[in-house]
Amino acid sequence: MKKVSVMIVEDSQVVSEFLHHIINRDPRLQVIASVRSGEEALKTLANTRPDIISLDIRLPGMNGLEVTQRIMNEFPTPIVVVSSDVEDDELKISMNALRAGALSVVQKPVGLRHADYERLSSELCTKLAIMSEVRVIRQRYRTYIPKPEVVPARQRSTLPAEKCPCPRVLGMVASTGGPNAIVQVLNSLPADFPAPILLVQHITPGFVRGFVTWLGGVVPGLKVVEAQHCMPLQAGTVYVAPADVHMAYAEPFQIQLLNTPPVNTQKPSGTVLLKSLTPLGTGAAAVLLTGMGEDGALGMRDMHQAGAYTIAQDEATSVVYGMPAAAVKLGAATATLPLEEIGARLALLFNPPSASS
To answer: What dihedral angle (degrees, nearest 10) is formed by the CA atoms of 46, 47, 51, 57?
Structure first.
């Protein structure tokens, strides 16, 4: 079996050798290059093309975000960000690196005698092996955020009349490539979006709270919070599923957190969230964004069969067309849309024109 070739970008020689040991002991992986800076990484990539890059986020010279932008623009290669801190500015850089094209962020393994050594080492190696299979494309990092699309009145009738009255709550699920997609969709919604948004983003558990803080900073038009059990739902608020529990909708219009087994190997699971919205029928809507695997597809199918309006991101704009493809295959998607059109469709769905317009 051909091993996955790995480049390590890490400024500390000690840590680099530590990662080298961890990665090379995994039978799936082989380190083919170790460099100390982003500049050195770019020079090496001109002649050496690894299957995956393990990227330290805090580097001398260019930081991890700048390196990610350059690599994705000049030598598109799957990148896993390895971060040692889940709380401070380093996390913000990591999240922005995800938005710039990095596929995942994992916690840097700790010393051999640490209780979490085996778990963190295993997570790093598994993530490198899985993400190496993602076909990434050349992209330029955008700071421009498009304004919501204004839908001409003559197009507004394309939404089925039976979908009215408009939904009261939105479920959204994303995985690999999700942070950038989520930001684009949420920033395309109107400031007066009249419903709560329940969000499941697959992410390393230690990074969830940092993700919530980061998302709140890049989506200024909406309030972003980490969901709590029995938290009442309010319009214009994004409720992010906490780590290691399932998030579900429950009456009377509130959050329910469930400590039940993983579904589709995920906890929180998008399928659990979307299935909980099924009893609302047309009173709920769902969006399934880019991601590896099938999580969310079965839940979206149940919602669709109950009359809910459901949207799957299309293949052309998905970083990984896994979860949306599974939903489409099940016939679970009312609409399959490019990323840049999803926000406008949601705005129309939740703010339908009056009969006189």
So the answer is: -50
Q: Which of 295, 304, 314, 318 is catalytic?
A: 295
Terminal C-alpha separation, the chain: 63
Whether 295 and 271 have beta carbons less than 8 Å apart is answered as yes
Residue 225, SS3 per DSSP: strand
Domains of the chain: 4-132 (3.40.50.2300), 169-350 (3.40.50.180)
CA-CA distances (angstroms) from residue 69 to 81, 92, 297?
13, 15, 31
The amino acid at 6:
V
Alpha helices in the chain (DSSP H): 13-24, 38-45, 64-74, 89-100, 117-131, 153-156, 178-186, 208-218, 270-277, 297-305, 323-329, 339-350
Q: Cα–Cα distance between 273 and 266 in angstroms, integer?
A: 12
Catalytic-residue membership of 295: yes
Catalytic-labelled residue, pool 54, 121, 132, 202: 202
Active-site choice (175, 188, 269, 318): 175
pTM of the predicted protein model = 0.85
Active-site residue flag, 175? yes
Closest CA to 290 of 182, 131, 187: 182
pLDDT in tens, the chain (357 residues): 789 999 999 999 999 999 999 999 999 999 999 999 999 999 999 999 999 999 998 888 898 889 999 998 899 999 999 887 656 666 777 888 888 888 988 888 877 777 788 888 999 999 999 999 887 765 554 433 444 444 444 343 344 444 456 899 999 999 998 998 999 999 999 888 999 999 999 988 888 888 999 899 999 899 999 999 999 999 999 999 999 999 999 999 999 999 999 998 999 999 999 999 999 999 999 999 999 999 999 999 999 999 999 999 999 999 899 999 999 999 999 999 999 999 999 999 998 766 444
3-state class of 10 per DSSP? coil
Q: What is the CA radius of gyration of the chain?
A: 21
